[in-house]
Amino acid sequence: MKKAIKLKKINIDKIYKLPKKVAFCKTCVISNQRPKIDFDEKGICAACRYFEYKKTISFKKREEELKKILDKNRSKNSSYDCVVPSSGGKDSAYVAHELKTKYGMNPLTVTWSPLVYTEIGFKNLIGFNKAGFDVILGMMRGDTTRRLCRDATIEMGDPFQPFIYGQALFPMKIAAEYGIKLVFVGENAQAEYGGPKSSWNKSHISISEYEKFWFSNYAVKYWLNKGYSLQELQMIDTSNLKKFSNVKKYFYGYFRNWSNHSNYYYAKKYTNFQPNPERTEGTFTKYSSIDDKLDTFHHWFSLLKFGISRCTANASREVREGFRTRKEAVSLVKRYDSEFPKKYFKDFLEYTNLTKEEFFTIADSWRNKKLWKKTNNKWKLTTKII
């Protein structure tokens, strides 16, 4: 018998500590409703300020810093000496390939399986493997993952949370099991996407810091209190922190002038990466986060909660990197940001065992009423980028 859905009363602003007054960055198109983003007194977001700051960084000096770390840990035999979480996507493929070919490291790449693979996503993973990389593919038991996806949709307004747990935690577990001390991920999201200045020069992060910043009240132990067993969640369990004390998760973007565009061309040239033949729903890009059919719903729920979605993030990034003007970005946001991800909607309902009516009831419970108004039985954003 199907379990009845119990919805709680939700206060988005309180949960995410959002400003009461909505404001958009005067340089890019991001909103102050994005959780954990800072705006200065001139109305410029911290992400844009960070990109200005990056121009003052000596990446030559940071490369020397990287070389010292690698020289200290480089394998003298055939053993692995670093872990790179990689789906075969453009960013992680770039990191793994450069560590191997430029610096002589022997990376073990670790993939946390998407909830529902896209054809292009799996094709890129195979292409990456053929480019010369050992890959460990982690898949948590399917019944648990599906249930967690459904429950996270209800409890968190984020169906993608099971993937986020595994993406962050599983590579750390593999590194600990293999006795590897280095894990290299891509960019420092706190710095690159609007976190405080204190994060701008962080080269690495501990697993306890990561859980506190990214998972906050929804760390894995939250689900243990919701009836999940440790056995079910053992692939993402990090409760024994002593086991991970010797493992450091470095941001490769700290040592490089990180660029999504550059990474795309690099991965396409060296690791068989291919973009989607069509743009991703909710945005204009064809090469970012294209592995999972359910990923688009993570961004659509962001639209409900914060009034901004994937196109806002992609367009803002391109403005910061100098590939678009703000005017162009505004036009893209107006065109794509509120698009509903209908292509894989049927797959989503089947995966989560939700009816269409249940899905929209849950969605409306997470809709921020400060940002949305219902007129003629249709929801419309009350605050839009100008």
Which CATH class of the domain at 59-261 is shown?
Answer: Alpha Beta
Helix fraction?
A: 40-55%
User: What is the CATH architecture assignment of the domain at 59-261?
Assistant: 3-Layer(aba) Sandwich
In DSSP terms, counting alpha (H) and pi (I) runs of 4 or more, how many helices? 17
Largest sheet: 3 strands, parallel
N-to-C SSE string, H for helix and E for strand: HHHEHEHEHHEHEHHEHHHHHHHEE
- Number of extended strands: 8
Mean pLDDT comes to: 93
- Poorly predicted runs are none
**What oligomeric state do these chains adopt?**
single chain
Structural class, please?
A: mainly alpha
CATH superfamily of the domain at 59-261: HUPs
* Alpha-carbon distance between the two ends: 49 Å
Strand order within the widest beta sheet: 1-2-3
CATH topology call of the domain at 59-261: Rossmann fold
Strand residue content? 5-15%
Radius of gyration: 21 Å
Walk me through this protein's architecture:
The protein is 44% helix and 8% strand. It has 386 residues and is mainly alpha-helical. The radius of gyration is 21 Å and the shape is globular. The mean pLDDT is 93. The strands form 3 sheets. The protein has a 3-stranded parallel beta sheet with strand order 1-2-3. A 3-stranded mixed beta sheet has the order 4-6-5. Helix 4 (90-101) crosses helix 12 and helix 14 packs antiparallel against helix 15. It has a domain at 59-261: Rossmann fold, CATH 3.40.50.620.
